[in-house]
Design brief:
The protein is an alpha+beta fold and 680 residues long. 49% of the residues lie in helices and 9% in strands. The strands form five sheets. Strands 10-9-11-12 form a four-stranded mixed beta sheet, with no helix packed on it. Strands 1-5-6 form a three-stranded antiparallel beta sheet. The protein has a three-stranded antiparallel beta sheet with strand order 3-2-4. The longest helix has 36 residues. It is globular. The chain starts with 5 loop residues before the first helix and ends in a 7-residue tail after the last helix. It binds a DNA duplex (22 and 22 nucleotides) through strand 12, helix 12, helix 15, helix 18 and helix 20.
Length: 680
DNA sequence: CAAAAGACTTAGGATTTCGAAG
DNA sequence: CTTCGAAATCCTAAGTCTTTTG
């Protein structure tokens, strides 16, 4: 099975999305609605632990609980020594101020305000391994229970109405809700679904329903469409009510207290049951993702915290107190058997610190990357096959920003690869192609089954090595048969502490942004044009990292709209110019103050319109260039935010133009600490 | 030692919200 | 005020890398 017809099955999508990886500008790396809704909401309230009364004493529990113990142990990181020393005194001041706030004030003053300003980055870190000293939360919010369909909504089997048991009906609704999706027509999806559905049936149902193709879900499907339509048509008041309920839920369950601070939780709602849809050609698509019950849940919190109560009549699987991990809640998912977690928001200290650290590691790589590059170039000549393979793989990881490529269990997931797991069939060698020598053509599915397609000229030695690695191998054989990620990472660890394959992606992404910004920013440009330059720099990184997206469904249309706006603006500009001209002529004849003034104002109008036109044109360029490229992923995960902050400061660009509210929260540390001269 | 389990980051698509145009 | 497209947010899958287990 391995590797056969890799693209035959899934290439259609990928084909459409194929983008040119070699943009000219890119230089790589130095190289019923209402009533049912109400029921849902009430359910939340009852299935979660009882709401706390506002002014209960435990309300300030989180100020009291951790006590003075939280004096952090000193563990300055190599890279931030100076920073920490400089800010030490400041940090202490902040802290002591916190503590002196009188009791009464604490409750009245919204904690929000106070907490949002908390600058965790000015405080010392915990010793390695310890993630927190105090943790209190209210546990997860469970999915609303299944609500049986109204009697008049029918399911038909073999043309005849059939009333399903509640359990079977619930699973049937999952399928019905997906009826419009292409994947309900896929063989694997249908097979997996049917198998799991039958498990939920009563024995009578099982004996009657023997073929999925005889099942008619269309009525159910129509019902759900009508429901969602009705949802859209709800009155403002009803919508408002739902919104308020969500806010209440967020307020109650969306936050935890970790070491004196109230922090936002990322995913406090348990994933509802449904049909699994993996990405790409996934062997498990269509399987039933079962409902998670309190009995599945492990709670993690402090011993001395108020332990969250399980829903009435239920128990937690376990309550543990492990401060070596960051999660609050975990459970085992039934599709892959992997563990899922509830963790904190990216704005939290625990996530932010890690993020910061990630970029510091990448900056350390910057200091030794030349040495490492020389080293792997030497290793291309090694007598040992293992060393050569390692060196070539590392070259790809560095030059092309490929992912490490762990082995995957065959048949458990979609067939995708990264660097170490590349197979012979994924590359083609061209001694010469389009006037270039030693070209390697890559064509494989990477993470999320996104296609990576690239033709890269490589050094002769690399090329010769690849020929060697491919000798006497079948297409489905591993290209690097003596290598895996663990061997590679072990080697990297020896070259630099904390170095792993993914650090190269972070490093190359960030350094590329910095370079591109230097290259592309024109000091004379106005703000929109500078932002276009920023986006182009960002885009260079996204292309390097192969961050693709499906072109938005409305892309063509929105492009047309924008074009017509531009045309209209152009006309408006022509008109304004004509008016200016005649006003000038008029002024020349009349030579009075009033007509002079008219000329001035017309001039201004022309200027204004010119600027607007320019803005629109820039927008159009930006959007066109972005058709199949996703900027968000690199912005959020690969680009040292301090580079962007510094760039904004340097050119007087408001940070809001680059980062939205959520992103500003995530990168608060960088926004606070980076000056305009920051160098990655 | 290798395989499995565990913890955490990275990822694109779906859904919801927002804000400008009509 | 309504509509519509874009942006923001949500969702959870799919990776990486570390730790534990046998």
């Amino acid at each position: 099975m391995k590797g056969t017809g890799l693209f035959a099955s899934s290439s259609l999508d990928s084909e459409k999305r194929l983008i040119c990886l070699t943009l000219p500008n890119l230089s790589v790396a130095g190289f019923q609605e209402t009533s049912s809704l109400k029921v849902e909401l009430c359910f939340f309230a009852s299935f979660c632990s009882p709401p706390r009364i506002k002014d209960e004493p435990d309300d300030d529990g989180f100020y009291a609980s951790p006590k003075e113990d939280s004096k952090p142990l000193k563990r300055p990181r190599e890279d931030d020594d100076i920073l920490l020393i400089l800010q030490d005194s400041k940090a202490k001041k902040v802290k002591s101020k916190d503590k002196k706030v009188p009791e009464a004030d604490k409750r009245k003053k919204p904690k929000k305000e106070e907490e949002q300003k908390w600058k965790w980055w000015e405080e010392e870190r915990y010793p390695e391994g310890i993630k927190w000293k105090f943790l209190e939360h209210k546990g997860p919010v469970f999915a609303p229970p299944y609500e049986p369909l109204p009697e008049n909504v029918k399911f038909y089997y073999d043309g005849k109405v059939m009333k399903l048991s509640t359990k079977a009906e619930e699973v049937a609704t999952f399928f019905a809700k997906m009826l419009d999706h292409e994947y309900t027509t896929k063989e694997i999806f249908r097979k997996n679904f049917f198998k799991d559905w039958r498990k939920e049936m009563t024995s009578e149902e099982k004996s009657t329903i023997t073929s999925l193709s005889k099942c008619d879900f269309t009525h159910m499907s129509q019902y759900f469409k009508a429901q969602s339509e009705a949802r859209k048509q709800m009155s403002k008041e009803e919508k408002q009510k739902i919104k308020e309920e969500n806010e209440r839920l967020l307020k109650e369950y969306g936050y935890c207290v970790m070491d004196n601070h109230k922090e936002r939780i990322a995913n406090f709602k348990i994933e509802p049951p449904g049909l699994f849809r993996g990405r790409g050609n996934h062997p498990k698509m269509g399987m039933l993702k079962r409902r998670i019950m309190p009995e599945d849940i492990i709670i993690n919190c402090s011993k001395d915290s108020k332990i969250p109560a399980p829903p009435p009549g239920h128990k937690w699987k376990e309550v543990r107190h492990d401060n070596k991990v960051t999660w609050l809640v975990s459970w085992t998912e039934n599709i892959q058997g992997s563990i899922k977690y509830i963790m904190l928001n990216p704005s939290s200290r625990i996530k932010g610190e890690k993020d910061w650290q990630k970029y510091e590691t990448a900056r350390r790589l910057k200091k030794c990357v030349d040495k490492i590059r020389n080293q792997y170039r030497e290793d291309w000549k090694s007598k040992e096959m293992k060393v050569r393979q390692r060196a070539v793989a590392l070259y790809f990881i560095d030059k092309l920003a490929l992912r490490a490529g762990n082995e995957k269990e065959e048949g458990e997931t979609a067939d995708t690869v990264g660097c170490c797991s590349l197979r012979v069939e994924h590359i083609k060698l061209h001694p010469e192609l389009d006037g270039q020598e030693y070209v390697v053509e890559f064509d494989f599915l990477g993470k999320d089954s996104i296609r990576y397609y690239n033709k890269v000229p490589v050094e002769k030695r690399v090329f010769k090595n690849l020929q060697l690695f491919m000798e006497n191998k079948q297409p489905e054989d591993d290209l690097f048969d003596r290598l895996n990620t663990s061997i590679l990472n072990k080697h990297l660890q020896d070259l630099m502490e904390g170095l792993t394959a993914k650090v190269f992606r972070t490093y190359n992404a960030s350094i590329t942004l910095q370079q591109q910004l230097k290259e592309l920013t024109n000091p004379d440009d106005n703000i929109p044009a500078k932002i276009l330059s920023y986006n182009r720099a960002n885009r260079a990184v996204a292309i390097l990292c192969n961050h693709q997206r499906a072109p938005p469904k409305t892309f063509e249309k929105s492009m047309m709209n924008l074009q017509s706006k531009i045309d209209a603006k152009k006309e408006q500009l022509a008109d304004a110019r004509r008016e200016l001209k005649s006003a000038k002529a008029d002024a020349k004849v009349r030579r009075d103050e009033k007509s002079k003034k008219t000329v001035e104002s017309k001039k201004k109008a022309v200027q204004r319109i010119e600027e607007q036109l320019m803005k629109l044109e820039v927008q159009a360029t930006d959007r066109e260039e972005n058709k199949q490229i996703a900027l968000g992923t690199s912005k959020l995960n690969y680009l040292d935010p301090r580079i962007s902050v510094a760039w904004c400061k340097k050119w007087g660009i408001p940070i809001e133009k680059i980062y939205n509210k959520t992103q500003r929260e995530k990168f608060a540390w960088a926004i606070d600490m980076a000056e305009e001269d920051y160098e990655f």
